[in-house]
Structure to design on (396 residues):
């Protein structure tokens, strides 16, 4: 009975996660690729497309790493969906290294989401055939460089592997219960050294940045056959960051992100059954997903998030940060909304962050699966040039 309950619960969890990536009348596979991976980004409302000033920029916007020097390693852990009280956890490891001869930085990250151990039984029998661990994982390699003092570009290549079950049979079709695919990201960042707003005559240079990231561009993933394939969650992120306060000991940064899933509608045959997508449908989806709904409905597919980060201290010495943010998704498109809080500390080359996500401030949020989610991040950064601390990147 316990095994059956766990399998049913896994189905509920995957359904809930797929609903998080609802778009264009369908859903995607491997939705773990959209989860905010680090504590800092999680604490500021899961926004970071315009900030992206540490190694977790691999997720938020790889172009932000073009403005960084030195090296950094970070490790994040989170017990996911705590309302279910199961051993579901999420780990994220990053690395970046500036290489002068390449005029940029190379990056790597490993994302792992564990769903726990399950017992496999026969198709028509309760007899135990074995055990398997269910998980999703992704290995990402990237490169970021400046193409202009004000502009950075970043690129990622990713291998994705998903194992949801042991060998499975559906309608006399056999599958391994595992699937592998690839994807890539393209990011751009504008961080001007001089930016004067007309009619206001105020220079926002080194205090403002604007970023764009198109992530998870790649072919569908399938466990049985291509006719039952699901698109991966291709996502567009537009973000900005503005340093409201910037003096010797104090910094206050505001972030704002808008994201939209770029997945085309699932095609159906005359009987209403899904039809296999073409090999290049993921590219078509990037274009068609912007206009296959009425404008009023299209606007509701855009997710908004924002945050504030206050930092006290100087880079290279003690620094303390407190953070807060909000996340909003339209009720017709998944309805996620939450408030996030967090804090961080840095001393010399070491840092620690944590974040807390709560949905209980909204009606009915006390029982939401995401309520009370915690993330913890440890990081080590070394070798940054002094110019690293000029402008938005402050090392926190």
């Amino acid at each position: 009975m316990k095994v059956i309950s766990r399998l049913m619960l896994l189905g509920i969890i995957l359904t809930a996660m797929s609903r998080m990536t609802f778009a264009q009348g369908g859903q995607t596979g491997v939705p773990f690729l959209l989860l905010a991976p680090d504590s800092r980004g999680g604490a500021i409302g899961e926004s970071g497309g315009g900030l992206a000033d540490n190694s977790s920029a691999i997720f938020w916007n790889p172009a932000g790493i073009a403005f960084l020097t030195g090296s950094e390693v970070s490790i994040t852990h989170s017990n996911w969906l705590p309302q279910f009280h199961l051993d579901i956890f999420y780990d994220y490891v990053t690395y970046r290294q500036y290489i002068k001869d390449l005029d940029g930085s190379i990056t790597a990250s490993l994302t792992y989401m564990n769903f726990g151990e399950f017992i496999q039984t026969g198709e028509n029998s309760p007899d135990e055939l074995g055990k398997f661990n269910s998980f999703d994982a992704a290995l990402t390699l990237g490169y970021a460089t400046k193409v202009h003092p004000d502009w950075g570009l970043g690129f990622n290549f990713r291998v994705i592997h998903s194992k949801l079950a042991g060998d499975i049979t559906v309608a006399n079709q056999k599958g391994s219960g595992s699937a592998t695919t690839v994807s890539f990201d393209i990011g751009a960042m504008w961080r001007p050294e001089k930016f004067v707003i007309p009619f206001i005559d105020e220079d926002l240079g080194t205090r403002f940045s604007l970023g764009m990231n198109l992530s998870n561009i790649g072919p569908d993933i399938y466990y049985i056959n291509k006719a039952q394939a699901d698109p991966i969650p291709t996502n567009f992120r537009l973000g900005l960051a503005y340093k409201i306060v910037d003096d010797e000991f104090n910094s206050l940064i505001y972030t704002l992100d808008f994201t939209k899933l770029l997945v085309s509608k699932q095609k159906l045959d005359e009987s209403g059954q899904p039809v296999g997508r073409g090999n290049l449908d993921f590219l078509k989806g990037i274009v068609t997903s912007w206009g296959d709904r009425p404008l009023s409905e299209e606007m509701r597919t855009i997710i908004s998030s924002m945050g504030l980060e206050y930092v006290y201290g100087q880079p290279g010495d003690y620094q303390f940060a407190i953070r807060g943010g909000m996340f909003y998704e339209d009720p017709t498109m998944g309805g996620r909304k939450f408030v996030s809080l967090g804090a961080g500390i840095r001393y010399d080359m070491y840092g620690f962050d944590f974040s807390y996500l709560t949905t209980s401030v909204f009606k009915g949020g006390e029982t939401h699966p995401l309520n009370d989610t915690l993330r913890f991040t440890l990081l080590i950064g070394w070798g940054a040039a002094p110019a690293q601390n000029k402008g938005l990147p402050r090392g926190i």
